[in-house]
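Subject: for your reference before the review

Hello V.,

The reviewers asked for a structural picture of the protein, and I figured it would be easier to keep everything in one thread rather than splitting it across files. Below is the amino acid sequence we used in the manuscript, unchanged from the supplementary table.
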Amino acid sequence: ANLDNDWLNNFQEYVANTVPTNKNSVVSEGVPEPVPLGNGVWELQSPVPTSTGRVYDVWRTTNLMGQIVWTPLNLGRAGYANSNPVVFRVTNAPDAATYRTGVRLP
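And here is what came back from the structure prediction:
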């Protein structure tokens, strides 16, 4: 179900800690592009808003062809009371990898 007709279903809104009956209470669809910091280090941001009651993480895949398997990096960080994005620094990044950030329940 999607009570507020936004792009997230009610369970996804519960996980993101947004209000499923308010179409203005939604996680951002886009996040800034990852930033290469050099020496195999990348900086990524979570979607906003964040919440202290949720955990934010980074997932990686090295194959976008066929069956895609996303591997969690298990960086698990809590969000912020002021809704700011969580910033991650991924180290030892493979040369050919795709990353995504997201939210999960604690």
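For the response letter, the relevant points are probably these. The mean pLDDT is 87. Strands lie at 35-38, 41-45, 55-61, 71-72, 77-78, 87-90, 98-104.

Happy to draft the paragraph if you're swamped.

O.
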